[in-house]
């Protein structure tokens, strides 16, 4: 049974093959509440179109010229944080899958089963629920279990957005004074956040904070 929708979901579709875009558009527009409002042939064009079109959801291929779908996702979400992103790809590949999640995508759909999964993935994205193909679920569980085995179980207490900002800057090597200037807060507040981070994460010093930030994907190794 189709879930009733009060408004049409406006979709930006990005793929460098016109034939694929046509097929995907046909799948999407079978549903009366899904409408493709813009089509891009690469990631850079997708970002440009997002500037000039009202878009609720972007459906992105990963491998595209000029700018990949992963790069475009990061740019797009920086430009319009409210937009949801689905990766539509031929790659059943754990590395791409984790990179897509890190870039901010809310779902990962394989082209080989798009006819079956894509509409469900769109619905899930608009409900802010992740959509993962079965192999991706297995990869996630395996990744989590590996972290637990190596004593890297995620902390029970989640960091606040501000603590995450401070953690990233500490890990990048900024001093408390520099962090205070970047975030427009006092040095005392920065020091308090650092103490909270060490306490929450059960870590001892800047080096351990940096290792944690790399694992959490806040900075590049």
From TrEMBL:
<keyword id="KW-0597">Phosphoprotein</keyword>
<feature type="modified residue" description="4-aspartylphosphate">
    <location>
        <position position="61"/>
    </location>
</feature>
<dbReference type="GO" id="GO:0003677">
    <property type="term" value="F:DNA binding"/>
</dbReference>
<keyword id="KW-0805">Transcription regulation</keyword>
<feature type="domain" description="HTH luxR-type">
    <location>
        <begin position="152"/>
        <end position="217"/>
    </location>
</feature>
<dbReference type="InterPro" id="IPR016032">
    <property type="entry name" value="Sig_transdc_resp-reg_C-effctor"/>
</dbReference>
<dbReference type="InterPro" id="IPR001789">
    <property type="entry name" value="Sig_transdc_resp-reg_receiver"/>
</dbReference>
<feature type="domain" description="Response regulatory">
    <location>
        <begin position="10"/>
        <end position="126"/>
    </location>
</feature>
<dbReference type="InterPro" id="IPR058245">
    <property type="entry name" value="NreC/VraR/RcsB-like_REC"/>
</dbReference>
<dbReference type="Pfam" id="PF00196">
    <property type="entry name" value="GerE"/>
</dbReference>
<keyword id="KW-0238">DNA-binding</keyword>
<dbReference type="InterPro" id="IPR000792">
    <property type="entry name" value="Tscrpt_reg_LuxR_C"/>
</dbReference>
<protein>
    <submittedName>
        <fullName>DNA-binding response regulator</fullName>
    </submittedName>
</protein>
<dbReference type="InterPro" id="IPR039420">
    <property type="entry name" value="WalR-like"/>
</dbReference>
<dbReference type="GO" id="GO:0000160">
    <property type="term" value="P:phosphorelay signal transduction system"/>
</dbReference>
<dbReference type="Pfam" id="PF00072">
    <property type="entry name" value="Response_reg"/>
</dbReference>
<keyword id="KW-0804">Transcription</keyword>
<dbReference type="GO" id="GO:0006355">
    <property type="term" value="P:regulation of DNA-templated transcription"/>
</dbReference>
<dbReference type="InterPro" id="IPR011006">
    <property type="entry name" value="CheY-like_superfamily"/>
</dbReference>
